[in-house]
Write a structure and sequence with these properties.
homodimer, 537 residues, 15 helices, 5-stranded mixed beta sheet, alpha+beta
Chain lengths: 537, 537
């Protein structure tokens, strides 16, 4: 970028700041107060306040008057739609069909599988009244749909020919959490997909568990530009009622916490025995219970995206889920500019957007508002996290180029107009790769092997997630958690909670022999694997 | 079709019937009882039983243990997905964005608009408990989201520049009806989309009301092959809180009842005044309340499709919403057929399906099960309503043709293999047009003008919907309804309910002068229009 251009930009940003000030004091003029553009805090100085501000100011979330419930605004919902489009197409390729089961579940069905209900019961919301009448029997709202669906599975499953059953639904679920709610991360109602399948053999079912896990990993790596560790959940952390749970776990650099990204469960025959889902096994020559899976990915993924990529300027959207990938902003429209030149600039900008959309499938818009300055627009779209801002001014036009400004890096790239569609598409791919790499590098630097329990808490305070030899037992995991709890935070903003296992990585550390001694020095059981421990969401 | 082929078919159907009989008595052999294929009743002899059987046996619906709630199986849900794909793309072209608001609403918000809440309150489900704790304040589940969304609209709407607001959500809603529930038509939970918009001017808002109404009409005419009458609802029938409601109304031939297909409401400033949704009007130079619309289309549309097109053989799917448009069934595989010929037949069938799918975008499948006869398959896919069955036998292969059998008409059309993709696509379009015409013709024959109240009930019993001069007043509509109620059904299976207005058709009868006297002879008010009266769902 030339000096001239830089000067113009600085000028425009200044004007924007002034405009904003005027808007903020607009009360006196009888108009409503405008929310201040931009964030008041940095991500590191007050992370929780930063998160609240980002999600509201970038227009992802609106607060709501029922505690633990939030409005998912179009800017956030479009991210979900991109995730849906990808995942829905992929599971359809696997032969999964969408359907819809009621959100209400009778107490009788809900309580059929004991381990399962024990875990969910404290958070179940109950409908007890309709209009002015009390219901004869209270009815639960699904916290998940195993108990909703499986009585029906028993009806559907008559013969080995009825298998596999593979269904999915995109829906809302309710878990009335009493902990402090956080938009996207811990909400009383959330959106997700839940897949439920039944197979004749354990082998087929297990294969699918990993097929789905790989799709979940791709949602993060290919769409959200977030690296994940694939693994199994420990006995303590697995889904209530599952034989085993697999998970993708992401890392949040700002505070070093892990966040579960999506889980794919092998339920074995636990539910099929309780719900009598049987078939005539050709192999065994007798009735056999089906082998089941369930798997879910929720709008929590959007929260992970915000936490991991957002910066002090606001939201940073990975290109593939950004509803607007490129915002074109005409610049350099001063009083000196002739009407003719101005019209040319606007027309050219408009044509660029059309070309990007129609010929290259790039999600582009033109911001041609004339009541705000280019600088104000820069701030606005940076706050909203649009991956590329494309500035086009008279001087650019003369040089047959446009200036691309990359949101995540601030990098400025002049692009010839001649081949703009292709170069924008390449740039979007590059941005995706860079965003991914940036997180991966920090994550890798903070994923350390540790063999000594005493070292764990200091490592957690250094925002590490920890690969430690582990026996896998519930008691041992509880001890480790208790041992790593802090009475007081080590530092402003760091968490005090103890470590739990995020997962047992499918890919175990290479070049390191698994020690025989569990990380818990009091444990006398044999280690099974390296588990990934961390503070967690 | 040749005699030979006919004979073969009859034979195969006979074998299928025998197989089925065997399956039905399978209990003795220790296997579970198989649901009887095919319907036990005809549509005219016991319509309500017919409906229950069709939706279950064609695998659209599974019954559920919470009253008024049903499982929407993949076969039905895919119809909904086709409707979603069309409608979602169309509203996005209009600039509407998807979002998600909580399903819980506080009593305070719910009760803000009095007319509105009066209508919905008796059916509202209340959550009063979570886990074992009673909630401090009961929380309602949305019956519709005006009162959920509009407090937020007030936050979003600061200036004329924030308008229009155009959002939509695809979600579940709950109306705890105490009348007899019917799958798709009257259910306590159902799926729909609800659009909510706010404009600076009444004109813009009104224009959108009709844009959406036209899209709803297209869902019926272009996707579901169902003719509709577009109109306005009467004062009595309009949405609680709306200035006016527009609707598309379909006609159900079997019983002559009208069914509301989707409604698009102009809310005027009724809600904006209650929820304080204001903006600084440039035109008026002062604060003004926004002009609002809301509009919804639900899974009830699937019920209309079933009732209107289904026949004594089962479901009949309109091609554009059929998840399987063509089922290819190899036939004529007898013991005499050489292995080589058999393999050739299967391979050719498989290749046909691939070609139809990949080259022509036709949703085709091959049914190559070898445990059931072709005749059984014919029955199966007819019951499920697949628009075209494509039979391919050794003799067809020799003649380089396949036999298309059209579900809705039973028509048999030999099609040369040479140009099969194109001819199938044409045939699907023809089927759509024919299905539409068939219903339209019956509907038109039963839409009659009537000027005498005494004639109304006999006309209703003849399955008519009635265009009658009407003053438009609520009292008058109530009188007409009371007058047309029957103490006893005129005939087995006909309804006893009185007539209500389905709508005031936008297109009024041509060539007929509107009389000055309302259809109600006691009414002294001036007629306003012809209204369409009928028994209704």
């Amino acid at each position: 970028m030339g000096k001239e251009q830089q000067k113009q930009q600085n000028k425009e940003k200044k004007v924007a700041a002034q405009q904003q000030q005027q808007q903020n004091t607009g009360d006196e003029a009888g108009t409503k107060k405008q929310t201040r553009l931009g964030l008041d805090v940095t991500k590191t100085e007050n992370y929780s306040e930063w998160y609240s501000q980002v999600i509201v100011k970038s227009e992802l979330i609106e607060y709501y008057d029922v505690s633990g419930c939030y409005v998912i605004r179009p800017w956030a919902y479009s991210v979900w739609e991109h995730i849906q489009a990808f995942f829905d197409a992929e599971i359809k390729k696997l032969g999964v069909k969408n359907c819809y089961f009621p959100m209400f579940v009778s107490a009788a069905a809900l309580e059929r599988e004991k381990t399962h209900v024990a875990d969910f019961a404290p958070e179940v919301a109950w409908v007890t009244k309709a209009g002015n009448s009390d219901l004869a029997v209270p009815i639960a709202i699904r916290p998940t749909s195993e108990t909703v669906m499986y009585p029906t599975f028993a009806k559907w499953c008559k013969s080995h020919r009825d298998l596999p059953i593979k269904i999915n639904q995109w829906c809302n679920v309710v878990r009335w959490e009493f902990k402090h709610p956080t938009p996207f991360l811990r909400t009383r109602e959330f959106l997700w997909q839940e897949g439920h399948t039944a197979y004749a053999t354990k082998e087929e079912a297990e294969e699918e568990v990993y097929d789905i896990l790989n799709l979940y990993a791709r949602v993060y790596t290919d769409l959200l530009a977030i690296p994940v560790v694939k693994g199994r959940k420990s006995e303590k952390e697995k889904f209530a009622g599952a034989d085993f749970t697999t998970t993708v776990e992401a890392y949040v650099p700002v505070n070093g916490r892990g966040i579960q990204g999506g889980t794919s469960h092998h339920l074995g025959q636990n539910f099929s025995k309780m719900f009598n889902i049987e078939f005539d096994s050709l192999v065994k020559g007798q009735a056999e219970f089906v082998h089941q899976n369930s798997w879910g990915l929720s709008t929590r993924s959007i929260g992970a995206m915000v936490m991991i990529h957002g910066d002090d300027t606001g939201l940073v959207l990975p290109p593939r889920v950004a509803d607007i990938q490129v915002v074109v902003i005409p610049v350099g429209i001063t009083v000196k500019l002739s009407d003719e030149k101005r019209v040319e600039l606007i027309e050219k900008s408009d044509a660029l957007v059309k070309m990007l959309k129609e010929e290259h499938g790039v999600r582009a818009v033109l911001d041609q508002r004339d009541n705000v300055s280019p600088g104000w627009k820069f701030n606005h779209w940076e706050l909203k996290g649009v991956p590329i801002r494309l500035e086009l001014g008279p001087k650019d036009l003369a040089k047959e180029q446009a200036l691309a400004v990359v949101r995540h890096s601030g990098q400025k790239v002049p692009l010839p107009l001649a081949n703009l569609g292709e170069s924008i598409k390449q740039l979007l791919d590059t941005i995706h790769a860079e965003m991914y790499k940036k997180v991966e590098q920090i994550r890798d630097e903070h994923m350390v092997i540790c063999l000594d329990l005493e070292e764990m808490t200091p490592l957690l305070d250094k925002k590490c997630v920890i690969l430690a030899p582990f026996c896998g037992r519930i008691e041992c995991e509880t001890s480790i958690k208790d041992f790593t709890v802090r009475e007081e935070p080590a530092d402003l903003g760091t968490a005090q909670m103890g470590a739990k296992t995020l997962c047992i990585p499918l890919e175990q550390p290479k070049d390191v022999q698994l020690p025989e001694q569990c990380i818990n020095p009091r444990c006398s059981h044999k280690t099974q694997f390296f588990a990934l421990f961390g503070r967690s969401y």
